[in-house]
Amino acid sequence: MVESFWWIIYIIKNNKPYFLVIKRQAIRWKIEWTAPKWKSEIWEQPLETAKREIFEETWIDINDIENKWELWDFIINFSDSNFEKRVTYFLFEYSWDKDSLDIIDNEGYIWIYKWLPIEKVLNLIDYAWLRELYRKGYKTIVENK
């Protein structure tokens, strides 16, 4: 089974959560706004992978992020094959407030990053299940203040 991990990073600005979203090129050249994701190396634990990938993709100092919650864990079964994929989502708080991140385009993506309030995130994200995940993250943050 392949394992894939996604992360949602937020900061608190003016007592309100803002989420990091990325604009990237997906399969078949589709441009989309989404949450970052990664695959774990065989020797890594999920949170180790998350911190490594967060640094590699955003240059956020891993000492400035804290894993708050595991939001969602599920298995995708592909009907046309025996292929299964386990997907886990984590919610991280970023403790250093910076409006923009300088990203090096080292993986061929568009890599435009924005910090946005939940309303704007929900308007940008195409996938209903990902919008629901951001809602769940927002609700988790608000309920645990």
Description:
With 145 residues, the protein is α+β, with helices and mostly antiparallel strands. Helix content is 25%, strand content 41%. The chain is built from three helices and seven strands; from the N terminus they run ββββαβββαα. Strands 1, 2, 3, 4, 5, 6 and 7 form a seven-stranded mixed sheet that branches. The radius of gyration is 15 Å and the shape is globular. The N and C termini lie far apart (36 Å). The model has no long low-confidence stretch (mean pLDDT 77).
SSE diagram, text form:
Elements: E1 2-13, E2 16-25, E3 31-34, E4 37-39, H1 46-58, E5 65-77, E6 84-94, E7 112-117, H2 118-124, H3 128-143
Parallel strand pairs: 1-6
Antiparallel strand pairs: 1-2, 1-4, 2-3, 2-7, 5-6
Total DSSP helices: 3
Distance between the termini: 36 Å
| Annotated CATH homologous superfamily | Nucleoside Triphosphate Pyrophosphohydrolase
Q: Which CATH architecture would you pick?
A: Alpha-Beta Complex
What's the number of structural domains?
1
Q: How much beta, percentage-wise? A: 35-45%
CATH class: Alpha Beta
Rg, Cα atoms, Å:
15 Å
> Which runs of at least 5 residues are low in confidence (pLDDT < 50)?
none
Main sheet summary: 7 strands, mixed
Q: Give me the strand/helix succession.
A: EEEEHEEEHH
Provide the CATH topology.
Answer: Nucleoside Triphosphate Pyrophosphohydrolase
Q: Which word captures the global form?
A: globular
